[in-house]
Design brief:
single chain; 366 residues; 10 strands; TIM Barrel; alpha/beta; 15 helices; three-stranded antiparallel β-sheet; seven-stranded parallel β-sheet
Length: 366
């Protein structure tokens, strides 16, 4: 199998030949990688043999590099939504959400919500929404083909699909109040964001991508972020609309869904909405063996190696043990891309990264 074929077979739970590896480095670990592998020029996915390459959705809320692709993204149009001079002190994402650097947080930001003070649907209607309809998508198909011709799968990073983008704009507390009060403003905002996500999902499917990475954080460290009935009313049908839009174009596209935190009560709903792969199965919140026992015949998984405890604070042997344990749980049919659950932060020892890579390379089912 090529790396792409191997990965897709693993995710479809039809067996695999080699254990794939993957990770996401913070800037300081990229610097450490460059020091150790100067010839790789920062491409750690290629250096370590990851079977996928990432294409970023221009509508992904944290994708500042792709904002230039979106027509009408002039920061001046956002100034009326912020205090005087504020636009000169922060950077804006493609939706017009302001991100202010947070001292000591390396790469996290404080967000400021342009629709926080909106009072009517008319306020939402006049907002300068990003124009994805007239975005030039001609770059997508050749980029996808080039990656696949080299034997790698194409993963589109399109998280913050509905819920997160909506509350980034409105603020989480205000959007929760809107939803709880059945305010038409919540319907308008969530539908607007969903419509634009459907448009982009179709474009990615038309380009032939292998895995569409959707997601919205709907869990917290010990509990879910909203009730199951609220999720089923407001978010599940909108997620299904996005998934259906992609599958109408490419029926075999795999759908990955990301949510940090404890989300076990939502897993059945995610499966019913059409999700194929759940990321990251955060071990500080959920036991992978139990999650796999309950749902492993209906959904595959990505992650399971904790980035709160195991990767930064564990020993190399503990990393090896957890990697072997989780791969053994998944078994020979696959269904698990075993990898860190989130970005690897500055405190992760390089020895733990090497332990993970070496274990995957040498893993054999007994």
């Amino acid at each position: 199998m090529t790396p792409r074929e191997n990965l897709l077979s693993l995710y479809r739970r039809t067996g695999y030949e080699t254990v794939p590896v993957g990770m996401h480095f913070c800037p300081s670990l990229v610097e450490e990688f460059n020091r150790r592998y100067p010839e790789a020029k920062g491409d750690y996915l290629k250096q370590f043999g990851a079977p996928y390459r990432i294409i970023f959705d221009p509508g992904f809320a944290w994708n500042f590099d792709e904002v230039h692709r979106i027509p009408n993204r002039d920061i001046n149009v956002f100034k009326p939504y912020y205090p005087e001079g504020f636009a000169h002190e922060v950077k804006f994402d493609g939706w017009g959400v302001a991100h202010e650097a947070a001292p000591g947080a390396h790469h996290m930001t404080r967000m400021h919500h342009p629709l926080k003070d909106a009072a009517t649907i008319e306020d939402l209607e006049k907002y300068p929404w990003p124009d994805f309809t007239h975005l030039d998508y001609s770059y997508l198909k050749p980029q996808v083909a080039a990656i696949q011709q080299k034997g790698n799968a194409v993963f589109v990073w399109a998280e913050c699909t509905v819920w997160e983008t909506s509350w980034y704009l409105r603020s989480m507390d205000n959007l929760f109040v809107d939803m709880g009060c059945e305010d038409p403003m919540a319907t308008y905002l969530l539908d607007k964001v969903t419509d634009m996500a459907c448009l982009r999902a179709r474009k990615f499917a038309e380009a032939g991508v292998d895995i569409l990475g959707l997601g919205d954080d709907i869990g917290m460290q010990q509990t879910i972020m909203m009730s199951v009935p609220m999720y089923q009313e407001w978010l599940k049908p909108r997620l299904k609309r996005v998934i259906d839009a992609a599958r109408e174009v490419k029926p075999d596209i795999l759908i990955s869904y990301h949510s940090c935190g404890f989300i076990e009560p939502f897993i059945n709903d995610l499966i019913e909405a059409g999700v194929d792969i759940l990321n990251p199965v955060q071990p500080e919140c959920m036991d992978f063996s139990e999650i796999h026992r309950k749902y492993g015949d209906r959904i595959s998984f990505n992650g399971t190696l904790g980035t709160q405890k195991l990767m930064p604070r564990g020993t190399p042997e503990e990393v090896r043990e957890e990697t072997r344990k989780n791969l053994t749980i998944a078994g020979p049919k696959g269904g698990l891309f075993c990898c860190p659950t989130h970005m690897l932060e500055p405190e992760v020892p390089w020895a733990n990264i090497e332990a993970y890579l070496d274990t995957c390379k040498n893993f054999r089912l007994q």
